[in-house]
Write a structure and sequence with these properties.
Order of helices and strands: HHHEEEEEEEEEEHEHE
Strand order of the largest sheet: 11-3-2-1-5-8-12
Structural class: alpha+beta
Largest sheet: 7 strands, mixed
Strand content: 15-25%
Bound molecules: copper (II) ion
Number of strands: 12
């Protein structure tokens, strides 16, 4: 049956529909302002996935509407449809094409992830403490200086955020940096970010964590290294002993040593 289909025409229609949908979808600014070295790579990955999804959607729609138009029963036709006992070529095609698309997506995502998480020389380590419903931050390279509700980081320097939850699961998200990472009680998770645009941003909890979840935010300031050093030197508090105990008891998920890099 597949041999009688106008394959060339259907493929042309699929390509045309893919191009039309992609043109609209890719032109939309889904993610907003870019604020880290990872952002352009992640946005590009999203655009490639949008085009692939548009292709799959178009292929299905073209075949669906062709079938609706071509094989519609004539008025008064009460007979049964043609009995079909499998079609090897069709089955190979609908297994092979999605497999190729999925493997391509997996490989491409893998390469983007390893690229944006490639450690640089001298990263800054920041401990992130999350709890219902607040964020606080420790700077292990700077005498465990402690800041509540306000996170400062230097411009153009890789930051390794070590996440520690003190109660339930929270999630660390600065939209302009694109990176999201869960904070899980009992384990230390790590997010690697290199902020490359100075400014003030918002850290948002993006894991529903209880009644005050929507208000669980912190101010994020990305500034030149000198200003960052001045700010961190002015911090009066030290990370509370109970929080340091949490770090000690957490299972480290990233084999890299804690406390690498100074402020
Ligand atoms: Cu939350």
């Amino acid at each position: 049956m597949i041999g009688r289909l106008p394959i060339a025409k259907m493929l042309a229609a699929t390509v045309a529909l893919t191009a039309a949908i992609s043109a609209v979808m890719v032109s939309i600014d889904w993610d907003g302002q870019q604020g880290s070295t990872a952002a352009p790579k992640i946005d590009e990955l999203l655009n490639v996935m949008i085009v692939l999804s548009a292709f799959v959607f178009s292929l299905v729609m073209v075949m669906l509407f062709y079938a609706l138009w071509k094989f519609k029963a004539k008025p008064g036709d009460e007979s049964d449809g043609e009995p079909i006992h499998g079609n090897t070529r069709l089955e190979v095609a609908w297994t092979l094409i999605p497999t190729i698309i999925v493997l391509f997506g997996a490989g491409y995502s893998w390469s983007v992830l390893s690229d944006i998480e490639e450690p640089t020389d001298n990263p800054l380590t920041v401990d992130v403490f999350s709890q219902q419903f607040a964020w606080s931050f420790g700077y292990p390279g700077k005498g465990n200086a402690y800041s509540q509700g306000v996170l400062h980081v230097p411009l153009d320097r890789q930051v390794h955020f070590k996440m520690h939850s003190l109660d339930v699961i929270h999630s660390f998200w600065v939209p302009e940096w694109r990176i999201k990472k869960d904070n899980v009680p009992g384990i230390t998770t790590t997010a690697i970010v290199t902020p490359d645009k100075p400014g003030t941003y918002q850290l948002i909890c993006t894991e529903l964590c209880g009644f005050g979840h929507a208000a669980m935010r912190a101010e994020v300031v990305v500034e030149p290294a000198a200003e960052f050093r001045k700010w961190v030197a002015g911090l009066k508090d030290e990370v509370p002993a109970a929080y340091q105990e949490t770090i000690r008891q957490d299972t480290e998920t990233d084999p890299e040593a804690l406390g690498a890099g100074g402020a």
